[in-house]
């Protein structure tokens, strides 16, 4: 079932700024990553989801509701972490969180306290005096304590140290296990690779590719790096019928690409050669992004 449906969304601010004919479908219960450089259109897209902007063309619907016309109703089941966090007033973190739970009519203070402890947040501090990282933690606690069905987050791990980022990713996995839907923009490739089910790549306001992350995590086309003990073996292997990606003659190294179906054949063939080492080169999400942008250029 489609949770967020974006059809031909266009918002033109001039001079190439905005989003142009952008379409996405986010299924209920999945974590959807939205990746692009700064200024690519991630925040503009998210602000349309939240009903903060009116499109020039196209539309966004969430659970069948128009994001512009029914934004108040949509906010009843959505939690949102903005890219730039500016708290109203100057209450303590605890007062802010309790007020958000009261106003939304969702979640519990008990869950908020668990998250405060987990994220090592000083909720007694005034929100305006908090560091960027502490403000980010406060926003995360507010979002996850609300028990919303849909979480929309604009670069939510910004300002978190590596340990806190790992805790945040575990929270995302827990929410997914509960059946929640999560839409998350990010510039951190590793976190997207770890948690996302689908990823859309946006560049200059347009979608350039959408991929199923399983194809990257469990890539069927493996790349192997081999180094041979002798030049004779090195040259003999080159004569075999394998896809050669790269050759380093001075080091007697060969990089080959092999589909999973042919791995057993490769193992059999290598029995006839003396190797210094044999290693798989993992294909990462960063590699995928590099390939996409090379194709675009």
UniProtKB/TrEMBL annotation:
Domain ABC transporter: 4-229
InterPro entries according to UniProt: AAA+_ATPase (IPR003593), ABC_transporter-like_ATP-bd (IPR003439), ABC_transporter_ATP-binding (IPR050763), P-loop_NTPase (IPR027417)
SUPFAM superfamilies membership: P-loop containing nucleoside triphosphate hydrolases
Keywords: ATP-binding, Nucleotide-binding, Transport
Keyword Transmembrane helix: no
Sample GO molecular function, one term: ATP binding
Keyword Transmembrane helix in annotation: no
Record Pfam families: ABC_tran
Stated family: Belongs to the ABC transporter superfamily.
PANTHER family, alphabetized: ABC TRANSPORTER ATP-BINDING PROTEIN (PTHR42711), ABC TRANSPORTER ATP-BINDING PROTEIN NATA (PTHR42711:SF5)
Designated name of the protein: ABC-2 type transport system ATP-binding protein
């Amino acid at each position: 079932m489609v949770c967020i449906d974006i059809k031909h969304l266009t918002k033109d601010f001039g001079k190439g700024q905005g989003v142009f004919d952008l379409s996405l479908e986010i299924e209920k219960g999945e974590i959807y990553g939205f990746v692009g450089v700064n200024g690519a259109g991630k925040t503009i897209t998210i602000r349309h989801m939240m009903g903060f902007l009116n499109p020039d063309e196209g539309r966004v619907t969430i659970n069948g509701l128009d994001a512009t016309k029914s934004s108040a109703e949509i906010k009843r089941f959505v939690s949102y972490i903005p890219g730039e966090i500016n708290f109203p007033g100057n209450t303590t973190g605890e007062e802010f969180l309790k007020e958000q739970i009261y106003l939304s009519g969702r979640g519990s203070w008990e869950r908020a306290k668990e998250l405060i402890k987990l994220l090592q947040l000083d909720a007694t501090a005034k929100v305006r005096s908090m560091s960027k990282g502490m403000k980010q933690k406060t926003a995360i606690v507010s979002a996850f304590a609300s028990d919303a069905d849909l979480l929309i987050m604009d670069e939510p791990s910004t300002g978190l140290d590596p340990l806190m980022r790992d805790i945040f990713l575990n929270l995302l996995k827990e929410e997914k296990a509960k059946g929640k839907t999560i839409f998350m923009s990010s510039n951190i490739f590793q976190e997207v690779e770890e948690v996302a089910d689908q990823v859309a790549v946006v560049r200059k306001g347009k979608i350039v590719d959408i991929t199923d992350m399983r194809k990257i995590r469990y890539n069927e086309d493996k790349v192997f790096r081999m180094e041979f003990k002798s030049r004779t073996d090195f040259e003999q292997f080159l004569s075999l019928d394998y896809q050669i990606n790269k050759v380093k003659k001075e080091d007697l190294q060969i990089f080959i690409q092999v589909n999973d179906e042919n791995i057993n054949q490769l193992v059999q063939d290598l029995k006839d050669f003396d190797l210094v080492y044999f290693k798989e080169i993992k294909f990462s999400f960063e590699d995928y992004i590099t390939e996409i942008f090379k194709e675009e250029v």
